Amino acid sequence: MRDLFLSLFVIAMIVCLVPGASRAQAQPPTWSATGSLGTARVLHTSTLLADGQVLVTGGVVPGGATASAELYDPATGQWSATRPLTTPRYNHVAVLLPDGNVLVAGGGGGGSSLNSAELYDPATGSWSPTGNLTAAREMATMTLLANGKVLVAGGGGGPDDATAELYDPVHLDLLSGGEPNQIGSSSLRL
Question: DSSP 3-state assignment of 2?
Fold first, then answer.
């Protein structure tokens, strides 16, 4: 019995340690074509939504910054238009929030950097303004933190490239009486 166990153990080790001993050789990753965007664009964002669709916003099209937005459905490989941003922008940042909305902020548009921010509600396909960044930012980074706040860093152009700020979506409905452009944001110098 001991010899049988030892033999099975040795066979199991060979199968686990020898590449390809019990499974087909791994195939290299591949690319395949899918549906094309409805609007050709560069310097845009794409955000994976909770339902698996992808939201593409803004960017530059022939003629300048665009406010257009599209949804990609991976089940069909097709794109469809959704309501446009409230502000045309490019080089902006976007992140999916825990509540399923998408926060879009900053970027460039109309020849200058932007400090405006807006929220996309996938359930209604609508956009609404939210608290402005404390500094206009292009090509910044935006990261959803474990506590639900959003960190935006860099991209200010000049001395503001070293600054960062936090967006707190939870307190938007709790704050009142403050300046609308300061709702939910604070600044931190790094």
Answer: helix
